[in-house]
Design a protein that fits this description.
546 residues, alpha/beta, four-stranded parallel β-sheet, globular
Length: 546
Amino acid sequence: MSEKKSYTRQDVMNKVKSLASDFWNGKPHEERRLGDLYVDKTGLYKHREWRGFKDTMYYFNMIWLYNYGHMISDIMKYGGGLKGPILFARGVWRYRWLGQSYLPVMHWFDRGLEGMRGEGLKASAWHYRAMVSETIRQFMRMLQADQNLGGDPEIWKKTLAHDETVWGGIFYPWRDRMDDVPLQMIPYFVTCHVNNHVVLNYIDAAQSIGLPGDPCPMCQAEAGIFILDDVPDYFPAVVTSNEACDGSVGTSVLQDWMMNKPLFAMPQPMQFDDPLVQEHCAREIEECWKFIEEQTGEKFNCEELVKHLERQNELQRFEWEKWEVAANTDYYPINGVSQALYRIYQSQDGDRDIWHETDARVKKILEKCVENKINSYPLTRHRVIAWSCAPLYYSHWCTWAYNCWGLNCIINMDSLMFDMTIRTDSYENMLQDMALYHEWAPMRRMAVGGMHHIFELWEYMERFHCDMVMMYDQLQCKGMQGVHGLFEDEFRARNIHAIWMPHALPDKRTVSRSEIRSIVNDYMTTIMHEEPLDPTLLEFDDSEGW
C-alpha cells in the first residue's frame, strides 16, 4: 500500500501563498499552460486567460468592453449618427467580407495579445484599437457613398478609390474637401488577419474563371473580390499601381473591366535608385494630381499637402523613437504583431487623427517603461528580425513564438520600408521625397528592389541587435524565390541562425499554421537544442480557427 502523504502547516501556508500570488499576479510564464485553454481545432478558449487580477480587469474593461463600445460609437460617428448601425447592418448583409471580419474582431485581439501582461499588454492593445477604428472609418465611408446600397451621391462624388498599395499621401492635397479609401485594404488585407477563411472564397473565384493558381494569391484574392461583385460602388475614379509585383498588373486589368470607371495607372518602378527613374516617378505623381483635378473638379491645394506631410513626419519621428528603444534596450513594450500591423497600416494609409491619438498614448507607456526599466518580455532568449513578405493568415505567429520559445520578434521588414521623412522646404524637394516614399511601398523596396535593398537585412540585424532571422518564404513569390539560395549562402557565411517559414500570403491551405509551428519547433529542438517555455503550445490543432 502506498503511504498517504501528510501535509505540514507550512505546506498549507505555502500553497495558500502560491494561490494568492497566482490570483493577483497570474501564473509564472512556465506554468501558464496556454495550450490547455484551447477548444480543439478552433483556437478558441474554453475559458478566459487569467492574467492576474490587475491585467485581467484591464483586459476586460479597457480592451473588451472599451473596444466593443467604441466599435459601436465609431459606426455611429462615421456613419451619420443613428443611421450608422442600420447602414452597417445592410453592409453586412450585402458584403461577405464585412460581417466575417468585423464580428470576430475581438478574437483577433485575443490571438495577438495572448499571454501578455502589464505595460506590453496596454501598448500593444492600443495599436489594435487604432487599426479597428481606422478600419471602421474606411468601410463606413464606403457604405455611405455606396450606390449599391443607395448611398449619398454627394459623398460618392467626394470619395476617391485607389489600390491599397498606392500611398494615401498622394491624396493629401484634397483631404480638406474629399476623402480617399483603398479598394482592397478592408475587403482583403484586414480580413486576412482577422479571419483567415474569408479570402479563400475570393482566391477560388479567381481560379474558377480560368486564371492559373501559381501567381501570388494576394493578386488572386484582390481579383476575386471584383469577380464576385463584393466591392462597394463608392467612387467616381480610381488610381491603381503594379505593386507589390507585376502580377498585380493582371489584377488591375480585371478590376478595370469590372469597374468601368476613369482609371489612372501609377506603376512603381523597379530600379528606383536611378535618378532618371526618380524624376519620371515624380512627374507621374503630378500627372496623377492632374487626373484627380479633371475627374473631380477640385483644385490641388499645396498648403493642405504640406500640412499633412508635416503631420506624417511627426508620426515617423515617433516611430524612430520607438525603434531606438527597441534596438538598444530591453524596455520596448510593443509586441511583434501589433508593431508590424500598425506600422504597415499607418505608413501606407497616411496621416489620420487616430494614429496621432494612439502615438500619444503609447508614448506615455514607452517613457514609463524606459524610466522605470520595465521589461515586458523578460524571458526573451533570442532577438528576432522577420524578413521578406509575411504570412497574412498567421501574423500572430510571433506571439506564439515568444510564449512557446522565448523568440522575441523585435522588428520586421515591412515596418522598415518607409525609413524616411519628407522634406517640405520646397516644392521640388517635397515631390522628390514623395516619389521615393511611393517607390518604397510594402513588399517593394527590400523584396524586389535589387540586391542592395534585399540585403539591407544585415544592416538592420546589427542596428536592432538581432541574433536570429525569421525568413519568410512566400512560395508563390517568383522574385524572392529567385534569391533563396543567395540568402542561404549568406546565412552560412555569416553564421546566422535563420528559420525559413514557408507560406502563401493569405492562403492557409498551402502551408497551415500548424505546419509553420512544426518547422519552428523542429529548428529550436534539433538545431538550437532548447526546451520550450510552455510545452502545451508545441502541438495543437487550430485548423478550423479564425
